[in-house]
Specification:
Number of strands: 17
Structural class: alpha+beta
Number of domains: 3
Strand content: 15-25%
Order of helices and strands: HEHEHEHEHEHEHHHEEEEHEEEEEEEH
Helix content: 25-40%
CATH topology of the largest domain: Glycerol-3-phosphate (1)-acyltransferase
Length: 389
């Protein structure tokens, strides 16, 4: 194990017992979640939870009393002093976004077989549009391979507390949170992998806007729409790309192409004259259609002032290049070198949209640009390599 030295499970259980009351307090203040009688299992369990914001693990810790190991991206343990202590005290199972997760899977199985509980967010990312993101077939295979009880846990409303374009939290309360189902090893053995996957997807699925339509609960958005163009860079009215700006005082999104203006209310819904969107799901549908239309016409994107890092062990970053990048149906061209999509694993966005991680061949990289919408390159990858989704 890289980073912090791996100690005994008993050591991490003691540390976790000290911190769990703090997790419960955080869940109360961040999400309004308080559970008087949490569940305690007498056996190792694999906990599968949907992913709505960065502190989701605190709601799970409030509902389930057992010590659990967290599966997390290794960029978390690279977050300075916080990351070092998180690694040292909790020994998370680390994976690198945009790479194969085979090593993480083996570590999950190893810890379960040693009698521990493990918490995994199988979506691997926070939703762009309020609806749960894709859960791969590998999750069902893991659930069957674990040969232990599998617990599904679902939270709703976290999307409005931490939309994907932010890397900070708003004020508000979850709509709901709790255990959905439990599956014994015998239950899982009796089902095919496809059936297990269907159950997991159904248990964890959330649609934040559909539930908000019914509840209409207000949230206090700390910076309004200030950072939304990290994810949405297509004007919803005229479909211009990279023509949007945000007024820092009124928090209004404006398009320099057609002059349209868009605002957001305290419930997370969009408003504007002749604006064909009310939710992020509406906006994403228009944006993806525009991206795909351009790709099919052979129109691809480029970006200036992007920094490329190579990611080493322990998420150590080495800067390779700062300057322009361009894209095509074949891949990304950076500093004269081609990074072919067919050699990549699916790239991932993190840090509120400012960074994109990917693996090409056997090397891991990260693109970074403050204020850019790097999501267009992720979508180009998926448009080019749909068989890898």
């Amino acid at each position: 194990m890289s980073g912090a030295k791996r100690r005994t499970d008993a050591y991490y259980r003691r540390i976790y017992a000290l911190f769990r009351p703090i997790f419960r307090i955080v869940a109360w203040f961040a999400y309004g979640v308080w559970v008087k009688k949490p569940v305690r299992y007498s056996e190792p369990v694999l906990i599968l939870a949907n992913h709505t914001s960065d502190l989701d693990f605190t709601d799970v810790a409030s509902h389930i009393a057992n010590h659990m190991y967290f599966v997390t991206s290794d960029h978390v343990t690279a977050m300075g002093l916080f990351g070092r202590y998180f690694d040292r005290w909790f020994a998370p199972i680390k994976v690198t976004k945009g790479t194969s997760k085979a090593g993480g899977v083996m570590d999950i199985l190893r810890r379960l077989r040693h009698g521990n509980c493990v918490l995994l967010f199988p979506e691997g990312r926070i939703s762009h549009n309020g609806r749960s993101t894709h859960i791969t077939a590998a999750t069902a295979k893991l659930a069957k391979s674990a040969k232990c009880r599998v617990v599904t846990f679902r939270a709703a409303g976290g999307f409005f507390i931490e939309p994907r374009w932010q890397n900070y939290m708003n004020s508000g309360k979850l709509f709901s949170a709790g255990i959905v189902n439990e599956y014994s090893p015998e239950d899982l053995a009796a089902m095919s992998s496809e059936e297990v996957l269907e159950h997991i997807r159904a248990d964890l699925y959330a649609d934040a806007y559909a539930e908000q339509e019914k509840l209409m609960r207000p949230f206090k958005f700390r910076h309004g729409l200030r950072d939304i163009i990290r994810y949405y860079d297509v004007c919803p009215r005229c479909r211009s790309v990279d023509a949007l700006t945000v007024d820092g005082e009124s928090m209004t999104v404006r398009c320099s192409g057609c002059g349209c203006e868009l605002t957001m209310d305290e419930y997370g819904f969009f408003h504007g004259r002749d604006i064909p969107v009310r939710t992020c799901a509406d906006w994403e549908k228009i944006q993806l259609a525009e991206y795909h239309s351009r790709f099919e016409r052979g129109e691809f994107f480029s970006e200036d002032g992007v920094t490329l890092y190579e990611i080493g062990e322990g998420f150590e970053r080495t800067e390779i290049f700062t300057g322009p990048i361009s894209s095509s149906a074949e891949g990304l061209k950076i500093a004269g070198d081609m990074y072919p999509f067919h050699d990549m694993t699916p790239p991932e966005i993190l840090s509120g949209g400012r960074r994109m991680e990917f693996t090409c061949g056997k090397r891991s990289f990260m693109l970074e640009k403050e204020g850019a919408c790097l999501n267009k390159y992720v979508e180009l990858y998926h448009w080019t390599c749909p068989e890898k989704d």
